[in-house]
Amino acid sequence: MGEQRELKTALERHWRGEIGADALEAQAAELRARHWRLQQQAGLDHVTVGDFALYDHVANLIQLLGCEPARFGFTGRETPLQRYFAMARGTAAHSHGEACGCGATSGEGALALEMTKWFDTNYHYLVPEFDDATTFALNPERLLAELDEAIALPASPKVALLGPVSFLFLGKSRQNGFDRLALLERLLPAYEQLLNRLAARGVTWVQLDEPILGLDLSPTWQDALRQAYGRLARIDQQLMLATYFSPLGDNLALACELPVAGLHVDAVRAPQELLAVAARLPAERELSVGIIDGRNIWRSDLDHALQLLGQARELRGGRLWVAASCSLLHVPFSLRHDPALDTELQGWLAGAVEKLDELRVLKRALWGDDAGVSRGLAESRVARAARVVSPRVRNGTVSARLKALPADADRRRSPFPARQLAQRQRLNLPAFPTTSIGSFPQTPEIRAARAGFKRGTLDERVYRQAMQREIERAVRKQEALGLDVLVHGEAERNDMVEYFGEQLAGFAFTANGWVQSYGSRCVKPPVLFGDVSRPRAMTVDWTVFAQSLTDRPMKGMLTGPITILQWSFVRDDQPRADTALQIALAIRDEVADLEAAGIAVIQIDEPAIREGLPLRRAAWGPYLAWATRAFRVAASPVRDDTQIHTHMCYSEFNDILPEIAAMDADVITIETSRSDMELLRGFADFRYPNEIGPGVYDIHSPRVPAAAEMLRLLKKAAAVIPPELLWVNPDCGLKTRGWPETEAALRHMVAAARELRTHHA
Ligand code: GLN
Ligand code: ZN
After folding, report:
1. Cβ-count burial 108-123 (b if 16+ within 10 Å, e if not)
2. Closest Cα to atom 10, ligand 1: which residue?
3. Most buried of 47, 126, 236, 441, CB within 10 angstroms?
4. Rounded to 5 degrees, what are φ and ψ at 582?
């Protein structure tokens, strides 16, 4: 994205029609050159080419391999760039004026390629689409032009691309029953041609990423890797096969035997495997050790790294590549001078630029080039040591509390049936109760008030009044709509993790720590650097104010420990499980305070619980055990008649339903409508024991579904979920929507619930 997110700015200006394609491409070329120069200054032997994308690197590959889905109906009159953005952004939702660079032809338009998370990161790639009509035809112009830019610097390029088998694996079949592996035979010639072209340009190394080697692979996919690399081995081009994010596990032998010139492994995520790989990989191959963490932001322990590298080098007869564990796309550009961080914190952190410098120090230390190395190592040592002893990291009260935590701290007082009874008496809700997920439309006025308060241009009293007016508006509207359990609307929250992180001890926030999420969108994850504690209540005032306006139950809204953990850069000096438990204790205190203030319903959102799952199934059990326990610790200090909700969305939940049930929330609201209640198939096999609100309408679109449509979904749900357990709610929060469509959709939703009540009366 660039140090100042220059690419974001240029892209968005281009999409608004303010700059043309040439200006966009010029900005992109400048960024590439700048980033290559940084790599050269760090003494890297190769700069990487092929990792730059205007939107997404998988989308680049779709164009490079000439397999743009036919459904876009490209005529050949569009420029490649127009086609690229059409795939990335779709062409349906707007009209194509003069300035529109989207590339759509005319008429109907097409939906963008689907987007999904890249392995266990928060980066989203565009999903290739395959069917038996898919063909491949190499379009190497863009890549070759970038290669020429690097050569002209001059620099020695290593071209890095996703490998053919992972490319097919990460795509989806457009036809039922179509096996996309059947395309491998057609795909390989395009890779072969490409490798020949690159060899002809004098490229010495091509890195092909096969991150699926870190997944549980079926024998068919393992064979596909053998077949693919067996064929590519016939080309006179050295290949570096790269894996990352996950241990090789039972793919270790396979990875070591594929006929390539080198193998890159992630020694940060799987240090325990490194020496086995070093011993096993045939002697004539190169081993590239990903030793600098590409997924987190802490300064490395270079002494430890050197020790590990030294052992590996010995096994490799003195030869070794040293690298970052994975692409540096997943960390901020630089953190060492971030103006929002004090100098102590700055010294503990390493963004991409600082990580390059760590590589420089390691390389020199390993190969005995002493100039500046001892200083580099000493600096790193001092910074790490300062972090270890800093009083900001450890809080005795927190560790004492963890130690003294009773074994049953994660248990409600009574089992669900008793709680359900107590809650029914206290809340007195109708059948099929209606509620929303928390946030209401974040209008420009709300954003302006929050921004003004943050900048200091709006004083606290005026800000509070503005937020209270919003809360009152939300409450009145919900009463008028006839919702049963109300929310205050979350106007005061910019982001569901940031809001809590800013009030908890142990978190820091950067000014420029942006990481790409998708396309031009970036997120700025909080930095969780120390023991977590809660100096004071975080949500009680707002919630109590909201409750004071109405007789209906007001739901207190909290973000759960796993979601806070998952969407932050987390400390590496203790297990994630321990950090999760600390956050859970802080949330637990908030839950207790809300209850004491008279709030009868409390929702603890955990939308990210699924994405924390390890990439390998064997590791799921331990993760799910500590993650669900952390949730229960947060949720359990309350009386039986206080109702705990949780909320989840936008993940595949069917394979972890028993663990979701083990969280023991009284009510779960869960996104389902986008897949036409696909989730409910899971409930046919697994009987969810507590109450459940499957989302009845998609909140991503301004479209207002008719009451009949929602009723149809509800009836579908009532067929597999006992009606007395069923709630009625949207898929997720409504902050990105406008009020008119929100009110209309909720009115239809309430009507659908009322209709359902008459059927079941
Ligand atoms: N309570 C949050 C909201 O409504 C939940 C958001 C989410 O699930 N991502 O905005
Ligand atoms: Zn949600």
Report:
1. ebbebbebeebbbbbb
2. 733
3. 126
4. -65, -45
Helix axes 21-41, 6-15, angle to 10 degrees: 170
Backbone phi, then psi, for 205, in 5-degree steps?
-130, 135
Q: Which stretch of DSSP H or E encloses residue 321?
A: strand 321-324
Mean pLDDT rounded to a whole number for the chain: 95
CA 534 – CA 395 distance, rounded (Å) = 12
Nearest by Cα to 449 from 485, 489, 494, 410: 494
DSSP state of 71: G
Query: Would the pLDDT of 177 be above 80?
Result: yes
Q: What is the pLDDT of residues 590-636, one digit of tens each?
A: 999 999 999 999 999 999 999 999 999 999 999 999 999 999 999 99
Task: Find out whether the beta carbon of 558 lies less than 6 Å from any atom of ligand 1.
Answer: no
- Tell me how far the alpha carbon of residue 496 lies from the centroid of ligand 1, in angstroms: 7
Rounded distance between C-alpha atoms, residue 204 and residue 202, angstroms: 6
Token code pair at residue 495: 């982001």
**Cβ-based neighbours of 676, under 8 Å, separated by 6 or more:** 713
- Can you give the pTM of this predicted structure? 0.94
SS3 label, residue 463: helix
Ligand nearest to the CA of 490: 1
Tell how far CA 507 is from the center of its chain: 19
Q: Contact at 8 Å (CB) between 234 and 293? A: no
In the set 94, 304, 337, 700, the catalytic residue is: 700
DSSP 589-643: HHHHHHHHTT--EEEEE-TTTGGGS-SSGGGHHHHHHHHHHHHHHHHTTS-TTSE
d(CA 120, CA 624): 15
Whether ligand 1 lies within 6 angstroms of the CB of 488 is answered as no
Residues 517-538: pLDDT tens digits?
Answer: 999 999 999 999 999 999 999 9
- Cα-based angle 615, 617, 621 (whole degrees, multiple of 5): 110
> 460-481 and 540-548 helices cross at what angle (nearest 10)?
50
607 lines ligand 1 (CB under 6 A): yes
Dig out the tokens for 344 from the structure: 């102590």
Number of C-beta neighbours around residue 75 at 10 A: 9
Do strands 527-533 and 505-508 pair parallel, antiparallel, or not at all (unpaired)? antiparallel
